[in-house]
Amino acid sequence: MNKINRFVIGLGLGLSAAASQAAVDVTSVITAIGDAGTAAATVGAAVLVMVVGIKVYKWIRSAM
Fold first, then answer.
1. Residue 59 is part of which domain span?
2. CA distances from 15 to 8, 11, 46 (A)
3. pLDDT by residue (tens digit) across 6-64?
4. Total domains in the fold of the chain
5. Nearest-angstrom CA–CA distance, 35 and 43
6. For position 13, what pLDDT does the model report?
7. Spatial separation of the C-alpha atoms in residues 56 and 25, rounded to whole Å
């Protein structure tokens, strides 16, 4: 009888834990990650343009 009680209690706790995990809303986290990715891409593109611009400037200057 003791094993059955432990099983029933464990099953109840397991189901309640599963139910509480099902209610987690992660849409705001996904949106924040997407926004951060967009910002990182913008900064990365700006850095790349600056590096290429400096290289082209040096290349043109050395040709003169």
1. 2-63
2. 11, 6, 51
3. 777 777 777 665 555 556 677 888 899 998 999 999 999 999 999 999 999 999 998 87
4. 1
5. 12
6. 72
7. 49
* pLDDT at residue 55 in the model: 95
User: Which tokens sit at 31?
Assistant: 């949106």
The per-residue DSSP string of the chain comes to: -HHHHHHHHHHHHHHHHHHHHHT---HHHHHHHHHHHHHHHHHHHHHHHHHHHHHHHHHHHHH-
Tokens coding 26: 């992660």
pTM: 0.52
Q: Report d(CA 64, CA 60) in Å as an integer.
A: 7
